[in-house]
Every structure is written in structure tokens, then in C-alpha cells.
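Dig into my protein:

:::
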Amino acid sequence: MPYASTDDGDVYYESKGEGPVLVLLHGGGGNHAAWYQQVPHFQQRYRVITIDLPGFGLSRIESGRFDTGTHPTAIEAVLDHAEVDRAFVVTQSLGGYSGLSFTVHHTDRIAGLIMTSTLGPVGDEISELNRKGREQVRHLSVADFLLTKEFQEKEPERVHLFFQVGSFNQTGPGRPNRLANSLQGSVSVQQMRDAIKAGVHISVLEGGADVMVYKPAYARLRELLPEANVQLVEGAPHSDYWENAQRFNSVVDEILDREYQSN
């Protein structure tokens, strides 16, 4: 099993397939295994790398420090260990914090970023709008903000599997160690603009049925950053990659096809 070493422990990752590199960064309830519906699909055309961010899955933390601020270093360690010069990154929810941070600070290594289910790492005006959005859903249970009610009722086996995957994590929703998020609001809109000018594609996907989405935040980002692709995905919930993998994979495919054809 491949591990990449950092000063704070070992980072587990898996690599499947051949071709341009596609890195998948999981959300707070997941780990590398959460992408079981994406890896078989994308490995037909890409080298797909899934990472257990520190505190999740099989990755090991020596210091006991659970903080998203350690995650970009883990991404860099994996790319180095896997001998990857440049990659396209797809993130879900929590993975967007380290994904966006790494992207704007390493534009030479990131061809593009598709960030789904969060605007949390974006600063400036967007941070305050995100705060308002979080206040509106603070009353929801973990299950209700991660999965739709309809899915919970119709797919009890897959709901159970979802939380079983998360049970291997040391931190995250419902886990014993609280995860600090020092990357919240850490990336400015100007940094995103500079990354795009440097040749990095940035897509931000807004789930039409995501209870965590605060629509005014996405609308404002469209105004502030027209260079990015801020795209509404009709009907998509917070964990669309899990509930409706066909739709999620199709949207990602369309973006990747467009970007690789244009380059």
C-alpha cells in the first residue's frame, strides 16, 4: 500500500489507470473509499489518484493535530511520491479547502480544479455570505446535511455504507477528534483570479439541491470572478458523487473534455 511521508506522518493514497492525472479529494464524511463510483469510471481515461487526507482513512498523524491546514502538505507529498508533475483536481466539500489552497499556491502543478459542494475556503465578501448560509442549516443533523431525505428513505443500504466508510476516520462528522479548519476563508478572489491567469482552469459547482449552498454566495462569486466557471448543477445535493454518481461523473467529464480539447 503506497504511503507518502510528511513531517507529521504518512499519507495513504491509491493510483489506478493511466493517462492525464486526476486527483480526487474527499469530503469530511469520506476517505479514499468514498470514490468507489468514480474510480472505475475515470480510470478508463485517466490516472486516478485518491488520497486519504490527514486524519482520514488509512493516513496516520503523529502529532495528533487535526487541522485542514496540514492537508496541502499532504497533497504535495503524494504528488511527489507518485512522481506527478501536473494534475487536474476534483474536490468534494471539505476537500475543497486544501484543493483550492494548494491550487493557488502551486499553479505550476495544477492544470485545473473542479470544486464541488463548498465555497468555504473562499475569503473576502464570500466568507461573510458563507457564514450566513451556515447559520441557516446549523439545526440540521449530520445525516440531513450530507444526504437528502429522499435518499435516506429509498436507499437505506447505501446510507449505511456511507457512514461505514466514514467510521474509519479519526476526525470528521461524528468522529472522536474535532477537525480545526484553519483554511476557512483563506483564499482570496484575487488569488483565484491570478491562478486562472497563470493557466489554471477553475470550476465551482453549485448543487441545485444542496442544503449547504447559500445561493447569494455563488451569485456574488460569479460577479467577482467571471473568469471562473461557476456552474449550477440542477438537482444536485451535497453528496451528489454518492447519491447520483452518473450525474456527478457526467458533469466532471464534460468539464475535463472541454479543457483537454481546448489545450
